[in-house]
Amino acid sequence: MLTILTPTYNRVHTLPRLYESLKKQKIKEFEWVIIDDGSVDNTQEQVESWILDGEIQISYYKQRNGGKHRALNYGVTCSSYNYIYIIDSDDYMTENGTQAIFNWISEVKSNDMLAGVSGLRGRETKNGYEIIGQFPKGKEYVDANNLERTKFKLLGDKAEIYKKEILVKYPFPEFENENFLSEEAVWNRIAADGFKVRWYGEVICICEYLEDGLTKNSSDKMRLNNFQGYTYTQKVNSHLKPFPSYAFDIGEYARLGKKRGLSNTEIMKNLDVNIFSFCLAINVNTIRRMINLIRR
Questions:
Q1: Burial of 91 (0-12, 13-18, 19+ CB in 10 A)
Q2: How far is CA 219 from CA 168, 216, 243, 251, 265, in A?
Q3: Alpha carbons 222 and 255: distance in angstroms, whole number
Q4: Three-state DSSP class for 103?
Q5: What span, in angstroms and rounded, lies between the C-alpha atoms of 228 and 37?
Q6: SS3 state of residue 48
Q7: Which residues contact 47 (CB under 8 A, 6 or more apart)?
Q8: Does the structure show a pLDDT above 90 at 286?
Q9: Phi then psi for 126, rounded to 5 degrees?
Q10: Cα distance from N-terminal residue to C-terminal residue, the chain
């Protein structure tokens, strides 16, 4: 069985589309766990009406607003089944989505070094949908960890389904008075311990990046307002990512650290990097930003 986990905050206008897509699934052996992160719209009333309809198995929980990562931690503890698919409240599933997931799970469940499976995300077009990001041509699937995605042409948002035992072992860190933490802070820790994901080349999720969504708002302001979590993520990345990716991350952290009034010494201490790595990252990131400006 499968848990479909949705953290939501003031998304009563988008949740019905996800609900309708779940009702249309060819295989309905799943539960839908909704974690309401302190919504002030009528999300609760809407979900309760769906529970009464009895079309699919739904569990609804509400917490004080604390951010998506806290909602995910809570949701994992509320999940009943061995695999958890995290899908945002402004996305929806293709009709074959759960059927594909069950097929994939059956192929990998005996492999202890696979943390889970993943499909692709797509976006709507006039002719259907197009793939978001990359997937290597001619491949049915690729086994790779989250840190190897550039190497295997797996960039872009994906639709990951993780084993519950993995998500229990690697919870999202929570920092006081901060409501945002990048998911790669956890996915890269899982990768560093040797766990891979089997990435499949089938779209199971259709996305819409809303103007008030987290993806579009992962800006300097958000990182500065959640600086402890940002520091944690970049410290993980600076020691795990290959060059030049880790240099970009160190350079961006240094740029924002200056806005926080940090000295170079404090920045290096926060990331636990030496002066050689620090200077290299500053130069690499400066060159990258200049190239990006020229391209504009």
A1: buried
A2: 29, 8, 23, 15, 25
A3: 14
A4: helix
A5: 21
A6: helix
A7: 15, 34, 36, 58, 60
A8: no
A9: -65, -25
A10: 48
How many CA within 13 A on the CB side of residue 157?
21
61 contacts 35 by C-beta, under 8 angstroms: yes
Closest CA to 135 of 117, 158, 114: 158
User: C-alpha 48: how far from its chain's center?
Assistant: 27
Which 3 state secondary structure label does DSSP give 5? Answer: strand
pLDDT at 212 over 60: no
Residue-by-residue DSSP string for 232-245: HHHHHHHHHSPTTH
Give the model confidence (pLDDT) of 225-251 as tens digits.
999 999 999 999 999 998 888 999 999
Longest dimension (CA), the chain: 61
Tally the C-alpha atoms within 13 A of residue 56's C-alpha that lie toward its C-beta: 24
Q: How many CB atoms lie within 10 A of CB 82?
A: 13
Residue 229 token pair: 């979590």
Which element (helix H / strand E) includes 166? Answer: helix 164-169
Query: According to the model, what pLDDT value does residue 164 have?
Result: 97
How far apart CA 74 and CA 7 sit, in angstroms, is 10
Dist. CA 180–CA 183, nearest whole Å: 9
Distance between CA atoms of residues 38 and 65, nearest Å: 4
